[in-house]
Prior knowledge:
With about 200 residues, this protein is mainly α. The chain is built from 10 helices and 5 strands, in the order H-H-E-E-E-H-E-H-E-H-H-H-H-H-H. A 3-stranded parallel beta sheet has the order 1-4-5, sandwiched between helices. Strands 2-3 form a two-stranded antiparallel sheet.
Amino acid sequence: MDDHAIVRSGLKQFLSEHVDLRVVGEAGNGREAIDLIRAQEVDVLIMDLAMPGQSGLDALAMLKAKAPDMGILILSGYPEEHYAINMIRQGASGYLNKECDPKEIVEAIRTISLGRRYLTPAVADLLAQQLNRKDDAPPHEQLSEREFQVFLKLARGETAGEIAKSLSLSVKTVSTYRTRLMEKLGLSSNSDLTYYALKNKLID
């Protein structure tokens, strides 16, 4: 049994103790999540960023395309400053670190089910900082959502062909994104990209 399954069963048990919440299903990866939302009416989906087979960023884009009104709460092992802003920009309704108090997950679900965003003080602070200091924000925060997606895949060593396939883009489009993001980040090679991503703790 993988640790994701253990976390899911613990979470399910905890949520079932709250009378106003009902767990209608669970999914082990992005594809299963898509099947789930096709079959079920889901108000709030809780999603991990690290999923088998694909990144949470890709899954988020697919889920938002299929169910634009559904709330998505990201529950992640990564600290807020690494991913929260990008995930919220991409359409997530909230971002919680797995170290949080379980009661906060319930509070977040209730808030998101009302159609609102759930921002922890840490995430609200990051958003405020970003609004105030657009100019001296780290270069990767200047990337568009799609550029950031392509950047992470390149940094993990994926080829333009693989990226094109997983994002349903042409290789030419992926190359255009690569050129633009290299320019914005002031980098010249894929190894520079990987080093930048590691240094900024965007990949493990």
